[in-house]
């Protein structure tokens, strides 16, 4: 009896404590996958009472994110692939290749990634804080008591709105990201003709739809993570703040992991886009 009591009351070992964050993360990932399935089923299963909330969330994300995204994409396009790549290409007298490089850098990677980062940091945190506050005030429990499904009425409209707005914002980010490359070309005193020539030589419809689809799925990841962390918040106002921080970190991890899988799959199924002309 004493041995059993000692077994129950023993402290976790150093190894168990070290693995605890990974264990919790895997458990939360499983819960998020379950929430994704429930959200998809609720989105297609009638009735559809979330139209007004969907429009409200879409306009909310649009209003919050358009200006930070504009600044981020221009600055990022000009700074990272623009100045760094142009300085390197000038050494070899190949500044005209900057347009082709922007197909790889901006369309395939930087525009979707910057869009997802801005949406997660601005709209995603707002979603987590909103749902977290409702959870702390026990509004979500009250909705269930009244027979209202929180997933259909709260998660689904945010999920659909964030997917749509990230897909649209990706095109917006592409335009202003390429504008950063134009600025870098002009700063180096090079004509824009060769930039556009190599850009359109290397650009393809696969690059465009791949970028938009990837960014749209980034929005789905952000929505699921932020809704889950908001709806499972606990511990008062401090708990809501902790949920917001965790939502951003987990959303970034999910985005980067999915980006790797998506990019590898796209390159494997369309090997022609690996050839730089």
Tell me about this structure.
This protein has helices at residues 2-9, 14-44, 51-91, 98-136, 139-145, 150-187, 192-202, 205-231, 236-269. The protein is an all-alpha fold and 277 residues long. It has one domain. The longest helix is centred in the first third of the chain and has 41 residues, at 51-91. It starts with a helix and ends in an 8-residue tail after the last helix. The model has no long low-confidence stretch (mean pLDDT 86).
Which percent bin holds the helix content?
over 70%
| N- and C-termini, Cα separation | 76 Å
Q: Write down the Rg.
A: 23 Å
- Our estimate of the beta-strand percent is under 5%
**Total individual domains:** 1
Secondary-structure element order, N to C: HHHHHHHHH
The pLDDT mean sits at 86
Q: Structural class of the secondary elements?
A: mainly alpha
The largest pleated sheet is described as: none
Q: Which consecutive residue ranges, at least 5 long each, have pLDDT under 50?
A: none
Distinct helical segment count:
9
Give a quick summary of the entry.
The chain is mainly α and 277 residues long. The protein has helices at residues 2-9, 14-44, 51-91, 98-136, 139-145, 150-187, 192-202, 205-231, 236-269.
Structural key phrases:
277 residues, mainly alpha, 85% helix
Blueprint (SSEs and pairs):
Layout: H1 2-9, H2 14-44, H3 51-91, H4 98-136, H5 139-145, H6 150-187, H7 192-202, H8 205-231, H9 236-269
Helix pairs in contact: 2-6, 3-4, 3-6, 4-6, 4-7, 4-8, 4-9, 6-8, 8-9
């Amino acid at each position: 009896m004493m041995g059993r009591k000692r077994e129950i009351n023993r402290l976790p070992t150093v190894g168990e404590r070290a693995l605890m964050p990974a264990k919790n993360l895997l458990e939360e990932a499983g819960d998020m996958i379950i929430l994704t399935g429930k959200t998809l089923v609720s989105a297609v299963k009638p009735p559809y009472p979330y139209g007004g909330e969907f429009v409200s969330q879409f306009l909310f994300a649009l209003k919050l994110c358009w200006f930070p995204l504009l600044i981020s994409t221009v600055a990022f396009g000009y700074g990272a692939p623009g100045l760094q790549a142009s300085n390197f290409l000038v050494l070899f007298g190949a500044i005209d290749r900057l347009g082709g490089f922007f197909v790889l850098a901006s369309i395939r990677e930087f525009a979707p990634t910057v869009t997802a980062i801005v949406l997660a940091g601005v709209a995603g945190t707002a979603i987590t804080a909103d749902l977290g506050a409702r959870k702390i005030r026990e509004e979500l429990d009250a909705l269930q008591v009244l027979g209202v499904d929180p997933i259909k009425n709260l998660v689904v409209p945010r999920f659909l709105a964030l997917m749509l707005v990230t897909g649209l914002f990706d095109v917006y980010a592409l335009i202003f990201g390429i504008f950063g490359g134009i600025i870098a070309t002009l700063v180096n005193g090079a004509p824009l003709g060769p930039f556009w020539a190599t850009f359109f030589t290397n650009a393809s419809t696969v690059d465009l739809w791949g970028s938009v689809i990837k960014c749209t799925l980034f929005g789905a990841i952000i929505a699921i993570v932020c809704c889950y962390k908001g709806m499972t918040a606990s511990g008062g106002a401090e708990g809501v703040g902790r949920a917001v921080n965790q939502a951003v970190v987990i959303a970034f991890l999910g985005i980067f992991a999915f980006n790797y899988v998506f990019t590898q799959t796209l390159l494997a199924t369309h090997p022609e886009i690996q050839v730089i002309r």
